[in-house]
Amino acid sequence: MITGTLIPMRTITPDAARLRLAQYLSPAFPVGGFAWSQGLEWAMDRGIVTRATLAQWLADWLDHGCGWTDAVLVALSLRPGAEYPVLDDLARAACMSGQRLSETAEQGAAFAGNVATITGEHHPAAALPVAFGRACAGFPLPAAEIIAAFLQAQATTLISAAIRFMPLGPIDGQAMLSRLQPAIIAIAERAATASKAELTSATWGADIAAMSHETMSTRIFRS
Question: Which one of 18, 144, 162, 215 has the minimum C-beta count within 10 Å?
Answer without folding.
Answer: 215
